[in-house]
Specification:
- One of its GO terms (molecular function) is saccharopine dehydrogenase (NAD+, L-lysine-forming) activity.
- Its EC number is 1.5.1.7.
- By secondary structure, the chain is α/β, with parallel strands linked by helices.
- About 30% of the residues lie in helices and about 10% in strands.
- The protein is built from ten helices and twelve strands.
- Helix 3 links the parallel strand 5 and strand 6.
- The longest helix is centred in the C-terminal third of the chain and has 21 residues.
- It is globular.
Length: about 375
């Protein structure tokens, strides 16, 4: 069997410091017989020398288009928009299987180049559960960003640029200090509280000082009756952590917010799920993703009503880049070790089958 070649590309999304591979997981792959190429990247949380020290070959930044075609290109976030055909096999979050904006043109690039996509979001075990996900740290970081936005609002300011934290402890202490030492008295509602993402949000709220009674935890049972939900307006921070796959009634609507008038308590909505361009978005009160440099967007309520801010950053875990990367890459490792047998290993055969199904839909949509 020939050596399996994995090529870690750099991330082009602004502020994205996470990595699909870490020096720890790269060494385990090399020990298993893999060849690992790593693009030099000053933005990545791990220094180039950390990868070099465990036996990885360093290559030029953004050089993956010239990589051998048998090299599998691995990254995290989607590639920059382009019409260039993709001839390699890519492992990444492509954000194109749920008909997000531009979905068909992304998949058309693979069709034109003969490449293959293994979407990290859809690598699942035998029970249908994702083999690796950033959910916990997304929820944890999203709740932290929500608390920071609330503190800014209480000071009459807008939340400024967010910077990554060295670790969870630094994040917790930073948020608590911004809130004046504790978040006691703040009330939050988390929808999707039983999932990875929701557990992360709940844990952050606990660690910054919210009392248990002030953390409202909802999941499928509480939302089964269908929205919109008045209860969302009665908390300071609402965090949406659900995984959306089909239409559900909106959780919150502009008319509902306007009707609440001056008595609304809700100040911050954190849409961790970030289904901004999904036609089934259950929080249809905003239309753009926010960024680390501009983390909030105001909801246009059209009246002289209290400000309501939305955080819709689609890579929140990069606020904790080292810890999030280590957890994700370690969870992904068993599946990566099966790559030499990907034509017969279920996690990879299922992912390839789904790719071909979605690509067929894209070919029809693009008229190819």
């Amino acid at each position: 069997m020939s050596t399996q070649h994995l090529w870690l590309r750099c991330e082009k999304k602004e502020f994205e410091r996470r990595s699909a591979l870490t020096p720890t997981t790269a060494k385990k792959l090399i020990d298993a017989g893999f060849q690992i190429s790593v693009e030099r990247d000053e933005q990545r949380i791990f220094d180039d020398v950390e990868f070099e020290a465990v036996g990885c070959m360093l290559v030029d930044n953004s050089s993956w288009p010239t990589a051998p075609t048998d090299a599998l290109i691995i990254g995290l976030k989607e590639l920059p928009a382009s019409q260039e055909p993709l001839r390699h096999t890519h492992i990444q979050f492509a954000h194109c299987y749920k008909r997000q904006a531009g979905w068909s043109s992304v998949l058309a690039r693979f069709y034109k180049g003969g490449g293959t996509l293994y979407d990290l979001e859809f690598l699942t075990d035998a029970t249908g559960r994702r083999v690796a996900a950033f959910g916990y740290h997304a929820g944890f970081a999203g709740a932290a960003a929500g608390a920071l936005a609330l503190a800014a609002r209480r000071s009459g300011e807008k939340l400024g640029r967010l910077e990554p934290y060295e670790n969870e402890t630094a994040m917790i202490e930073g948020v608590k200090n911004t809130l004046g030492g504790s978040a006691k008295g703040v009330k939050a509602l988390v929808i999707g509280a039983l999932g990875r993402c929701g557990r992360g949000a709940v844990d952050l709220f606990r660690k910054i000082g919210l009392s248990e009674d002030d953390i409202v935890k909802w999941d499928m049972a509480e939302t089964a009756k269908g929205g919109p939900f008045q209860e969302i307006l009665d908390v300071d921070i609402f965090v949406n952590c659900i995984y959306l796959s089909s239409f559900i009634p909106p959780f919150l609507g502009k008319d509902q917010i306007i009707a609440a008038g001056q008595n609304r308590r809700l100040s911050v909505v954190v849409d961790v799920s970030c289904d901004t361009t999904n036609p089934f978005n259950p929080i249809p009160i905003y239309s753009i993703n926010t960024t680390f440099s501009e983390p909030t967007v105001p909801v246009d309520l059209g009246q002289d009503l209290p400000l309501l801010s939305v955080i819709s950053i689609d890579h929140l875990p990069t606020l904790l880049p080292r810890e999030a990367s280590e957890q994700f890459s370690n969870d992904l490792l068993p599946s990566l070790l099966e790559l030499p047998r990907r034509k017969t290993t279920r996690v990879w055969t299922d992912a390839e089958k789904l790719f071909h199904e979605k690509q067929k839909e894209a070919i029809e949509a693009e008229g190819l």
